[in-house]
Amino acid sequence: MQLNRDELMLLDWLFCGHGDPVTTEQRDALMRWADLRRRVWVTVIDLDLAAKEVATASTADMDLSHGEQEELLALVPTTFRWGPGEDCGLSLKRKLAYELYGVDTIGEYAERQKLRALFGGTDASRSPSDKPEPYPNDPQDTAAD
């Protein structure tokens, strides 16, 4: 998976307990991430070295196991910025989701598109899983009543 520096720093921030004081139990829980934290920093160093060789090295390759991807998808905040920069929380979550579910989701979407084209489907013929769920207590829903 290609990660940029902000995404790598966000991972390290997660593994460090978000800057809060750490209890013994929390420290033990955080230490189970020791190997992944080491791999994050090796990747950061690789990115720094590549940036010296090339004008701009924007990403570095980081291998994550399926289990690590699942846990990180649950832990990474959906929105997170370092100052005025890019929303690295959202970009990292997107990359994790694509790694975990993208191939299947893209394949299913392509199949639905083929069937629609074949049978002349319209929005009305979308499968229930394609239709967005209405927002509970949506003011627009009550306006139509």
Layout of helices and strands, plus pairs?
Elements: E1 2-4, H1 5-15, H2 24-31, H3 34-53, E2 59-61, H4 66-75, H5 88-119, H6 139-143
Antiparallel strand pairs: 1-2
Summary tags:
145 residues; two-stranded antiparallel ribbon; globular; mainly alpha
Structure description:
The protein is mainly α. The chain has one domain (2-130). It is 59% helix and 4% strand. It has 6 helices and 2 strands. It has helices at 5-15, 24-31, 34-53, 66-75, 88-119, 139-143, and strands spanning 2-4, 59-61. A two-stranded antiparallel ribbon has the order 1-2. The protein is globular and about 60 Å long. The protein starts with a strand and ends with a helix. The model is unreliable at 138-145 (pLDDT under 50).
Quick overview:
The chain is mainly alpha-helical and 145 residues long. It contains six helices and two strands, in the order βαααβααα.
> Into which percentage range does the β-strand content fall?
under 5%
Query: How many DSSP H or I helices?
Result: 6
Give the mean pLDDT: 77
Shape: globular
Please indicate the count of domains: 1
Terminal Cα separation, in Å? 48 Å
Poorly predicted regions are 138-145
Could you give the count of β-strands? 2
Order of adjacent strands in the largest pleated sheet = 1-2
Reported for the largest beta sheet, the result is: 2 strands, antiparallel
Overall radius of gyration:
21 Å
Helix content: 55-70%
H-E string: EHHHEHHH
Class from helix and strand fractions? mainly alpha
